[in-house]
């Protein structure tokens, strides 16, 4: 029954994209997953090759052969200060442990009850994150991205790919919901899901809820999102009652997609995880592959991936630019303040939190 409902609900989207439904296969380790897991090692390897085997200009000033080597405490303090001042808007990253290994410092950090490993050069010049290399001697550019041109059509098709517990995915959802409420009857605006999990089993649970509510109880979807994004894991079930979700129908849908896509089986079988790190979440793998999704959030308008300031107004303007003839709703002004990353109420952003972070 759930499969039939899903096919009916997606019929409109399938006809637009002229794509046939295919059987989802467990993929081999894909480039985007390898890049996330091995990004640190690649960056370190590049630096060793460029620097002749060490991080520095060649002047040896210590018994280690490393120029201007910082102590573990100095390097970790510098990295933690940089992250808290430049990369996050809410909460605080703290240091769990630090050790020197293979020519770099490995810092185990804690943020929002998650332990996250990062690496720095021994001289504290560079920090290696899963998303890339950061210079610790420069500040992050949080200026609003320049507007990008998108293809136009009568009814834009809009996809926003997220992980439901990614701080930056939550940031995007908070900016996206007012736009969904404003333009939902004028454009095909969807919330989609990255096809792997980075934040544990709780992310599978919440992804499933969001997916099924959007699929089968769409009239209550934005109300649920408004509650969910400001609610901790233990309280999210209260949102179902608060919004009036048909829980029996929701459970039936979740059981159906779990059976169809083997979600629980993939989570429990670590041999299927990408590089042993990330459980697969293949509900929308076809769309992920179509648009080259490589992280949360990824924003696509009429088939073009675009970068946008994570404010309701900026997202609205981008979608409205995708209409051949924009509706009058595009004249409405929404908040131009960027939302804050992580859990919190919609509209609580200070506008200076930046829009470049991604899980």
Order of helices and strands: HHHEEEEEEHEHHHHHHEEH
Total individual domains: 2
Number of helices: 11
CATH topology term of the largest domain: Glutaredoxin
- The fraction of residues in strands falls at 5-15%
How far do the termini sit from each other? Answer: 34 Å
Task: Report mean pLDDT, rounded to a whole number.
Answer: 79
Give the overall shape. Answer: globular
- Spatial strand arrangement across the major sheet: 1-2-3-4-5
> What's the CATH superfamily of the largest domain, by name?
Glutaredoxin
The CATH class assignment of the largest domain is Alpha Beta
Percent range of helical residues: 25-40%
Description of the molecule:
- The structure is a single chain.
- By secondary structure, the protein is α+β, with helices and mostly antiparallel strands.
- The chain folds into 2 domains: 31-135, no CATH class; 144-331, Glutaredoxin (3-Layer(aba) Sandwich), CATH 3.40.30.
- It has helices at 2-17, 31-50, 72-86, 167-183, 201-216, 221-228, 236-243, 247-261, 263-268, 285-291, 312-320, and strands spanning 94-101, 104-111, 114-121, 126-129, 132-135, 157-162, 188-193, 298-301, 304-306.
- A hairpin with a 2-residue loop joins strand 1 and strand 2 (104-111).
- The protein starts with a helix and ends in a 39-residue tail after the last helix.
- The model is unreliable at 1-66 and 139-143 (pLDDT under 50).
């Amino acid at each position: 029954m759930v499969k039939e409902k899903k096919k009916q609900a997606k019929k409109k989207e399938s006809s637009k994209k002229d794509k046939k439904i295919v059987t989802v296969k467990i993929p081999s380790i894909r480039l985007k997953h390898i890049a996330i897991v091995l990004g640190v090692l690649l960056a370190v390897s590049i630096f060793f090759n460029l620097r002749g085997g060490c991080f520095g200009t060649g002047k040896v000033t210590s018994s280690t052969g490393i120029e201007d080597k910082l102590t573990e405490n100095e390097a970790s303090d510098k990295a933690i200060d940089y992250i808290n001042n430049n990369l996050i808007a809410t909460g605080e990253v703290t240091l769990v442990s630090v050790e020197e290994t293979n020519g770099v410092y490995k810092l185990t950090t804690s943020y929002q009850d998650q332990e996250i490993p990062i690496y720095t050069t021994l001289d504290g010049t560079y920090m290696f994150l899963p998303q890339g290399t950061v210079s610790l001697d420069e500040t992050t550019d949080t200026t609003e991205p320049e507007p990008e041109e998108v293809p136009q059509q009568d009814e834009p098709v809009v996809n926003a790919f997220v992980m439901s517990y990614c701080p930056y995915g939550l940031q995007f959802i908070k900016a996206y919901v007012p736009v969904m409420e404003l333009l939902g009857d004028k454009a095909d605006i969807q919330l989609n899901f990255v096809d792997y999990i980075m934040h544990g089993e709780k992310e599978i649970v919440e992804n499933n809820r969001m997916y099924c509510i959007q699929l089968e109880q769409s009239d209550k979807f934005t109300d649920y999102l408004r509650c969910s994004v400001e609610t901790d894991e233990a309280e999210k079930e209260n949102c179902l009652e608060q919004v009036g979700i048909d829980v029996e129908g929701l459970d039936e849908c979740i059981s159906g997609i779990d059976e169809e896509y083997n979600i629980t089986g993939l989570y429990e079988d670590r041999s299927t995880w990408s590089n042993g790190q990330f459980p697969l979440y293949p509900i929308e793998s076809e769309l992920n592959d179509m648009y080259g999704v490589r992280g949360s959030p990824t924003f696509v308008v009429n088939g073009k991936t675009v970068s946008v300031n994570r404010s309701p107004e900026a997202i609205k303007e981008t979608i409205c630019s995708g209409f051949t003839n924009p509706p009058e709703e595009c004249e409405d002004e929404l908040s131009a303040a960027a939302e804050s990353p992580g859990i919190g109420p919609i509209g609580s952003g200070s506008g200076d939190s930046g829009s470049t972070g991604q899980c």
